[in-house]
Design goal:
Structural class: alpha+beta
Organism: Pseudonocardia zijingensis
Strand content: 25-35%
Bound molecules: pyridoxal-5'-phosphate
Number of domains: 2
Protein name: Aminodeoxychorismate lyase
Number of strands: 14
Order of helices and strands: EEHEEHHEEEHEEEHEEEEH
GO molecular function: lyase activity
Keywords: Lyase
Helix content: 25-40%
InterPro entries: Aminotrans_IV, Aminotransferase-like, BCAT-like_C, BCAT-like_N, Class-IV_PLP-Dep_Aminotrnsfr
Length: 261
């Protein structure tokens, strides 16, 4: 798939589209974004992404022209046609509206996690901001330590999420995910999985990681991705039954909402 992008409504090949170098979105990571997955060219849960984008921008005191951004996304989607991929919508402090359609990243069937110490930036609670260097570094540190992806753990030992996905775990036979009060992102996939499975929010201390029966990551681009090990300790079931159930239920909801056949 050729990556196409729109900058303030001008559409062209993504690699050739530009924004001014003075944009504080670039210079300071000051801005907000959303990523929605495209199924045959149609974004799943788009309304929820738009709602979160508005909330992120309001929390960051960033004003932007929502109507223009949505119309530009529509025009870009009309141009790319029925592709499977992802659409990223970025609003910068410099006032640029950037939309990019890209192929999905390659994903392994199951992922080995390595814990990385991480303190959420509290002032950015409920802001999906462009400031992702810490998340990207966490993934890199986990890979340097031999894992595929990071599992972020707070300085007090509370398990949080992965750098770009929510974390679910089965403990004592029940499915849980860390609470939003621990400053994890209000992930849209997390919301859907909670609803579909009846999972509940529960604080997880890292001391209990060895007791987990199953675990998976959840995000827009991954949907549900089983976890195979944490810090080198294999999980007993990969994917376990509750992981499979969650993955199937989410796929089913996506297909039903988008009326995919
Ligand atoms: C820190 C973080 N947690 C969780 C997620 C998953 O969120 P969603 O399900 O809305 O894609 C993301 C997505 O980028 C993220 O960046």
């Amino acid at each position: 798939m050729d990556e196409l992008a729109s900058v303030d409504g001008t559409i062209g090949p993504a690699a050739q589209m530009t924004i001014p170098v003075t944009d504080e979105g670039l210079l300071r990571g000051d801005g907000v974004f959303e990523v929605a997955r495209l199924y045959a060219g149609r974004p799943f849960a788009w309304d929820e992404h738009v709602e979160r984008l508005q909330r992120s921008a309001a929390n960051l005191r960033l004003e932007f022209d929502l109507e223009a951004a949505l119309a530009e996304v529509d025009a870009l989607l009309a141009k790319v046609g029925p592709v499977d991929g992802a659409i990223r919508l970025v609003i910068t402090r410099g006032g640029r509206r950037v939309a990019v359609v890209s192929p999905l990243p390659e994903r392994q069937r199951a992922v080995a996690l390595g814990t990385v110490r991480y303190a959420p930036t509290r002032v950015l609670d409920a802001v999906k901001s462009l400031s992702y260097a810490a998340n990207m570094l966490a993934s890199r540190l986990a890979r340097e330590a031999g894992a595929d992806e990071a599992l972020l753990v707070s300085p007090h030992g509370r398990v949080l999420e992965a750098p770009t996905s929510a974390f679910f775990f089965v403990l004592d036979g029940r499915l849980h995910t860390p609470p939003l009060a621990d400053h994890v992102l209000d992930s849209i996939t997390r919301r859907h999985v909670l609803e579909l499975t009846g999972a509940t929010a529960r604080v997880l201390h890292e001391d209990l990681l060895g007791e987990l029966e199953e675990a998976f990551l959840a995000s827009t681009t991954r949907e549900v991705q089983p976890v195979s090990s944490i810090d080198g300790r294999p999980l007993p079931a990969v994917p376990g039954p509750q992981t499979t159930e969650a993955a199937d239920a989410l796929r089913h909801r996506i297909a039903a909402q988008l009326r995919l056949t």
